[in-house]
Amino acid sequence: MNDIISPDLIEKIALQSVLRRRIVAYFIDIVIICLLIIPAAILVFILGFMTFGAAWLLYFYLWALVALCYIGVSVSLNSQTVGMGFVGLKMSNSEGAKIGGLLGILHSILFYVLFTLTSGVIILVPLFTKNKRMAHDMLLGISVINERAIKDII
Question: What is the model's pTM?
Answer without folding.
Answer: 0.84
